[in-house]
Amino acid sequence: MTRFSTPSLQTRDSGRAPARVARWSRLLGVAALLLVFAGCASPLKQWGAETSLRARAADFDAAQLEQARSAVLTAVVSFGFEGYAHQVSRSLFKALTQDPLHISVLSPQMSLSRINRADLAADYTAMMAAYQQSGILNRATLGRLGEVLQSPYVFLPTLAWFDQMMSERFNFFGVRILQTRISILRLSLEIWDTRTGEIAWESSGEATLAGEDVREYRIPFEEIAEHLWATLLADLQSRPAVPVSPGPPSSP
Question: Same domain, yes or no, for 36 and 90?
């Protein structure tokens, strides 16, 4: 009698094991290559910026900023963003020095130093505190600052909102391959005439940055701010603004 034998389960499993190991090795190899290439590549960035408010005084022309040196004041920031005040002012100063208008501007650090040397620190602090309540810079104090800084105009930046969110796009066995980081920044800028106490020009805008990367990569705040400042200053240079209404005439 002829006997037929069948391979045991152990024999079949031992035959499949090398194939299974080879398949997993290929997958791990592909994952490793993705990590290497993604880690070496720069993050992909998509910028978006737009302005939502532009207004100017009827007698203001941006060319006047080229005729005399202006000054950058300390930024006004919303509650919870106090730590960004200096970064907002510094990023605006840097953007102004790169602007094609060739504006001569005093840095916020130098402005504060001159204000303090002139014993105007208390007046300046009170003026900025009142501004957060009323949106008005005291005319008398502003005039003294203009004399000390030798600046007919001052730039007042404001930070309204800043947020960064992150979401995973693809992961491999718990290893993050791609992630999307979205940054949102809202800034405003006012130019005050220190001689009249009027707002000569103002604009607000929002910037959105979406970046894809495998690493724990955070876009520096200054980079986002400078991009939005450039957009706002482009409005100052080339786009017509809506004149500020002078208001109803006073009665005799």
Answer: no
